[in-house]
Amino acid sequence: MDDESGFSNVAPPLFDGNNYDIWAVKMEAYLEALDIWEAIDENYEVPSLPNNPTMAQLKFHKEKKTRKAKAKSCLFAGVSETVFTRIMTLKTPKAIWDYLKEEYAGDERIRSMQVLNLMREFELQKMKESETIKEYSDKLLSIANKVRLLGTGFADSRIVEKILVTVPERYEASLASLENTKDLCKITLAEVIHALQAQEQRRAMRQEGVVEGALSVKYQDREKMWKKRNKKNFSASGDATTSNNKNKIVSSKGNYPPCQHCNKMGHPPFRCWRRPDAKCSSVTKLVMKL
Known about the structure:
about 290 residues; mainly alpha
């Protein structure tokens, strides 16, 4: 019993009134690890001690009694307060175990109905477009395990057949490869799941590459659009500047009538070089120096 001291620090699985079959499997394993499951499975009676018992008889009596007490304590600790109030008056661990089984697992008729409902739920399953193969297979396995917990066999081959028939068309390439390379009557569930997951990964990588390429093209198109727009704006700005400069030049020249000396516009007659009294400023300066 000393070897169990470390494991005894682990809390027992808690039963709150739901999923009894799962809790029962966990609790049985827990009691077996503590070497006290026989107190429930064998439902033995602790014999009375004879007069003047030997040390071996005392040890055996104490061991049997302690195991039953530990089993009862584990069952009490492994249920919620609501469930505990229904079993607290029961004296033996076997009585507690049988009560919980009858109360929450139901009789054979109820269990058979539960199996039928689960089988119907399994047959109605179809993989959605948004689901991954892992999500779909986990859902099928969950239903199959519930059936198994109710005492009905459920082979993995049925899950394999269900997956092969109900997966979407996007897995057609993998299914064809499996048909050509494997015996579908002997293929395992793990092989099917791994093959379909490999196709999912390849498809996801291709889609990622397409998205990156599309983003790159979109960025290039946007860059071209911005360059074209900037060029257009620059050209328009340049045209406006040229027009403004021309307007300034025209404005600076003034709006004069045709000159009477040269018949040209843009200057007053007294500034015309062809007027009779026009003099060259350079010649005037030279005469003044002389």
